[in-house]
Structure formats: C-alpha cells, structure tokens
Design a protein that fits this description.
Length: 106
Amino acid sequence: MTLASNQLKTEIVYPDSDGKPMAESDPARDYLIYGVSGLDLRELRFYHPPTEKTLLSHKETEQARQAAEQARLDAIPKLLELGLSLEQVANTLSLSVDEVRSFALE
C-alpha cells in the first residue's frame, strides 16, 4: 500500500492549552524534575515470589560486589604464602598475572 505525501503529514496536538510541548515552560519542567528526583530508582526493592525473598537493591548489590572484589584481593598474599605461583593465584582468582604481581608488590 502506498501513501501519498500529504497523508504522512499530521498536525501535532500538544496537551497544554498554551500550545507548547509539555515541560516547555519553567514551572512544568521544574515539576517534572522534582517528581523524577523523588523516585530514587536505585533504592527500589523487588520481591521474587517463587523464593519469597526480597531482592537486593542496587546499593546492596554494589556493596556485595565490592566486598567480593576485596576478598579476592585479600586472598592473594595468603595463597602466595601457601606456595602457589603467581600464575596459579591468578588462575584461581580469575585475575591477570599482572594484577596479582602488582598487588603482591604493595
């Protein structure tokens, strides 16, 4: 089906009585910014019905990731003391040999 060029042109109808798009005025923009800033999406909590558990928030997930990373780094000297080579430690902790070497030299 082919459309004529005049069929593709449609008039834009703005929902505001002043004929400007929404948030075009300062008060409307400020109101929208205020509303969005009130929603801190990183702190939303989600519920997982099959397990009946509340899932971690973004902040808690990030804290857990940082703690796991720190635990991996803390394990480097302990594994080296046990006699593992740099390559073995890197392989065990899923790190590069350079990362293990630089952390071991600190």
